[in-house]
Amino acid sequence: MLQNEMTELLHIQYPIIQAPMAGGVTTSTLVAEVSNNGGLGMIGAGYMSPVQMREQIREIRELTSNFFGVNLFVPEEFDMTENEINTAEQLLQPIREQLHVEDKLDIPTFSKVTETFHEQMKVVIEEEVPVCSFTFGIPSKEMIKELKEHNIILVGTATTVKEAIEIEKCGMDIVVVQGSEAGGHRGTFLAGEKESLIGLMSLIPQVVDQVKIPVIAAGGIMDGRGLMASICLGAMGVQMGTAFLTCEESGANKLHIKEILHATEDQTALTRAFSGKWARGINNKFITEMKQHEGSLPDFPVQNSLTKTIRKASFSQNNRDYMSLWSGQSPRLAKRQTVKSLIHNLMTEVDKFNKD
Amino acid sequence: MLQNEMTELLHIQYPIIQAPMAGGVTTSTLVAEVSNNGGLGMIGAGYMSPVQMREQIREIRELTSNFFGVNLFVPEEFDMTENEINTAEQLLQPIREQLHVEDKLDIPTFSKVTETFHEQMKVVIEEEVPVCSFTFGIPSKEMIKELKEHNIILVGTATTVKEAIEIEKCGMDIVVVQGSEAGGHRGTFLAGEKESLIGLMSLIPQVVDQVKIPVIAAGGIMDGRGLMASICLGAMGVQMGTAFLTCEESGANKLHIKEILHATEDQTALTRAFSGKWARGINNKFITEMKQHEGSLPDFPVQNSLTKTIRKASFSQNNRDYMSLWSGQSPRLAKRQTVKSLIHNLMTEVDKFNKD
Description:
Chain A has 356 residues and is an alpha/beta fold. The model of chain A has no long low-confidence stretch (mean pLDDT 96). Chains A and B meet through helix 8 and helix 9 of A and helix 8 and helix 9 of B.
């Protein structure tokens, strides 16, 4: 049950993938420790430059000889009206003043973002990374063909059955289904925001009935109970974010970790105020204040760029009010522990289940 | 694993409760068939008069000698400004005209609603109904004491950990945890709407860790996979609504059933436009049109009363546009079958799991 087509494909002992959290969470130690302890470590490379990516891939290779992966953000065309920029700027400027930061107005263009994406993919191929997963969409046919020619295992991210079907159709090997419970960015790329908030209890079996490729469950899974439940629903494994974010090897900000360890299940909220894309995090002043303006803010990655200095300053000033405190809906189950303990405890629980 | 404290308490063979769907869905045949086939049938009596309740309880007694239950809505104080009534009336009047119905302006008062609730409870006691479950809150201490003196098993409905803790504290025997996947009304009574939309993958284990009474999972569960997953997460059983709503014995409108059988997981929406309380149903014209006014509509049960003739007419005219097409997030798993087949197939799947 726990050794299956997916674990074989990914060369892993346990059906556990560490979610590729972007923004510095996935240190080389975190990724390598997951891979060294029987799971699949993943670099959240969405915001990385090709140079940073290459450095980290090489660093991880020094720490593990096991499989690991890289996650990339698929660029989407984005709208950006002057009006949206002005609205955002008017809302963000007072916060910048409060935090004593200046705006480095560095608005990305679609062609620049696409260029970076191509360079990131080139690094994946040149460095022969065994696994590459994608969020926010599906790369072009040509890109998929090229990656497959280099025997790279491809993983897509879906939030609805239709998205999972498209991921299978384009030739990817595995699909991660992200339930509404999940922390961080929603991977939605075809559906609307509200339509795509499907709980895993509903999402997993409905996807499993429609695709043949292995399905990985993501969202709110923190322990052996979540892994076993996902397997019962038809998934071949799990991808866990928040559970690894609070681990000792994680690069997450200490205050962020503390906030998760003290949060309850009813304290997260969905917001697009940080980046322009919907994401789940612990509610704070920024999310609450921006709520009513959410519809008029620019798309990802423009809004992300506009809030960059604010997020950075709030982290360095230990100010929870303006931080993106990403978390799934199970913060009560989060623990501060090593990756080794997390995986060991989880698999012990699973063993106990299978004996009962 | 499947025979536990909860099945013992409820005198049932399988850990399956049929959700008490109000509005005529839970016919005596449906309830009795569930109880006769090893589960617990439940009357959705929220909107029933004490006389109707008594009749149905007696009818069911003719059809089964097994345990069954009744569900009641706990009255909450409600706000009702003239402004809200006017807003609702302005929005509803054109629809009434289109459907050729008149408004019977019959606005409920809190004292009337409370009086009915007391009479309903009296029926439960007099008719010695074995199980009584509650939605939208917790009855008074005195009422709980009286019900317990009559050995009636009490079941509460929670959507957050805090709500589950309160249900345990007040002395109830079992708690149903309703995940964000669930169709129909949200049982939320302490939390806000958004805070209480927790997926079952997160909700079950976090509740189980905090209460000692048996936990029943509800929301999107349709088959053996969902039952097994809920058990893995720590629940002692499941409560299923949509799965029983499409059964041959159900009293649901045929068009409603057809809509569920043809719907996909991304087609439900949350709305408070039908009743004044948040509920999940298949998206239609009414939900879409009322979306932007949702915040200015009166509370339950006032809005429910204002839309009554519209809902009734749309059902009798087979007009999907204005019906409350309640459904959970797993409509792709819904089947038209007998209760006997549903329970038999589900338990066959479960047996297969336990053999693998």
